[in-house]
Amino acid sequence: MNTHTAAEHRYLQVARTLRKEIVDGVYPVGSQLPTEHELCERFAVSRYTVREALRRLREDNLVSSRPRTGTQVVPRPTTSSYAQDVMSINDLLAFAAGAQLEIESNTMVTIDAELKGRTGLGLGEQWLAVRGYRQDAAAHVPICRTEYYVNRAFASVGRLLHRHTGPIFPLIEDLFGVSIVEVRQEISAVPVDHDLAALLRIPVGAPALQLQRCYTTSDGEVAQVTVNTHPAQHYRHSMTMRRVKGAG
Length: 248
Fold this sequence. Notes:
Helices cover about 30% and strands about 35% of the residues.
């Protein structure tokens, strides 16, 4: 890997760390980020790398920079669209923090043919089904329908969800001492059904994007499967791909 490519990868790591700290409240809205010099020392990187990381945060509407005043954390603009820029499992946590989970039902279900087709789970298996919707944490506007299917071995996590608004897989990790090491995502186009149309006040049959995520532990066990359904016009998924030197 040449020096320029290494620097590109490093700035993404710096941006990811700072983004998580902003979301976690280490740097609240209105506060100043450390100076470029301080960030260079903290991460042991060049000024170029720090500036590229800060540029990424500005593109995410997390900070603003002005000459001689430094970089300040700003409130994210209210929007009817849900933009997702995910580089790691940690980023799933960061973005989920801005969209609260409102649970409508929490019960064991037996996987039938319809659920098997949407989740990939085994026909006749029993899973904990947690169903509801996510809403914008600031505007309290429904964003999407959300369904969690939790492995029966971890189903007791359901008793902790009555006051829970964030992602569920960190609870599984904490309660059972397992580690989620892989999340496989599939995106497919589906028509909006009556329930989703009523929730989001959009026409029945309008196009929607369905995101299925399968969370796997270090033991190779599927801990949970989630299905999120977004109106197509309100969802944008951003992914950056880079050429690996020597790859075909």
